[in-house]
Design a protein that fits this description.
It is built from 6 helices and 10 strands; from the N terminus they run ααβααβαββββββββα. It is α+β, with helices and mostly antiparallel strands.
Length: 336
């Protein structure tokens, strides 16, 4: 399918909405850079070898608390109204106050673990379909979903097959790795001649994207994060990723959530366009005809933060948690 190249998300509208509706503290520099870009005073920088320069730290933690999928009650409405925005502001203020409250009480909890982001008016990160929700699963997708298990499934747990890739500290997979999480939401871009490097703080992974025109891998070669090939369309980096191994969920699996599988037919197209000194418009389109009845797309701005530092995501395959899940599950059933 070639529909991915026809993605129309009205990115200037996405950026303008973000900048105009209360992005939170610390955005003055990003807004000033974007204003210069709109006035024509700002010129997209280039690397020494002539590629558009996207390098820097682009953490997504400010978007934490913004849902990937739009609540059904919103219908096709993409932005929160004043009352809904005020409720989000109050909710995030309360959640972000937990750190200081825990220090004062001497009881450490989720406030020292979670980063809940800054308020914005986005009803969801997904912008297509117009209802902001992932399309329904196919019959095959539903069949696979019903068999998927993870640490949120409640057990019983008897082996590695009862856990997903994130449980096992292997990967969040794609597209999940390009969306916010409650912690370690850092992204760093580095470049060298012929390559763009995307470092992900969560599960300490690095995506290496060749932009030198090399052909795609043979279909038989399948990988956790697929295989990416990039190209420049003016100042926009376009990344097409295929060759997935179909062993990680499409999105993060949480309590009560229905897992969405992926297949080897998963195809992802991303577009990154620098629009100001400290802003990138990011768009992603996802298609997997084996498990979904349609494609979906998300769009949201990235903000550069030169002071952001990665923290070690100290999770690795074969650490004790999986073994403890299995041992305790067996003990509860009298199997030890």
């Amino acid at each position: 399918m070639k529909t991915a190249r026809a993605l129309v998300l009205a990115p200037p509208l996405v950026m303008a909405a973000f900048l105009a509706v209360g992005c939170g503290a610390g955005d003055a520099r990003a807004q000033a850079g974007d204003a210069r870009a709109q006035s024509g005073d700002w010129v997209s920088p280039q690397t020494e070898w002539g590629d558009p320069d996207l390098q820097g730290m682009w953490p997504m933690r400010y978007l934490n608390g913004t849902p990937l999928q739009r609540p059904e009650s919103f219908g096709e409405r993409r932005l929160l109204n004043d009352q809904e925005y005020a409720e989000r502001v109050a909710r995030l203020e309360g959640l972000n106050a937990r750190y200081d409250n825990e220090i004062a009480s001497g009881q450490i909890g989720q406030g020292h673990w979670s980063e809940m982001g800054e308020p914005n008016r986005f009803a969801s990160l997904i912008v297509e379909p117009s209802n902001g929700r992932i399309p329904a699963m196919t019959e095959e997708g539903q069949r696979q979903s019903a068999m998927m298990t993870s640490s949120w499934s409640g057990g019983p747990f008897d082996g590695l097959a009862d856990f997903n890739a994130l449980d096992r500290c292997i990967t969040r997979g794609l597209p999940a790795s390009m969306f916010t999480f409650m912690y370690n939401s850092g992204i760093e871009i580095r470049q060298s001649p012929g390559y763009v490097i995307i470092r992900l703080e969560l599960v300490h992974e690095t995506r290496i994207v060749p932009v030198d025109g090399r052909p795609a891998l043979e279909p038989a070669i399948r990988q956790w994060l697929g295989e990416s090939r990039g190209r420049w369309e003016g100042d926009t980096l376009v990344i097409e990723t295929t060759n997935f191994n179909a062993e990680s969920p499409m999105t993060i699996v949480g309590p009560g959530a229905t897992p969405i599988p992926t297949s080897t037919e998963l195809r992802i197209v991303e577009r990154l366009t620098r629009t100001g000194e400290d802003t990138i418009e990011y768009e992603i389109r996802v298609e997997d005809p084996v498990v979904l009845t349609g494609t979906w797309a998300a769009a949201y701005p990235w903000k550069r933060d030169p002071g952001y530092q990665f923290f070690e995501y100290a999770c690795h395959e074969d650490n004790r948690t999986i073994r403890d899940f299995i041992s305790s599950s067996r003990a509860e059933r009298g199997l030890l």
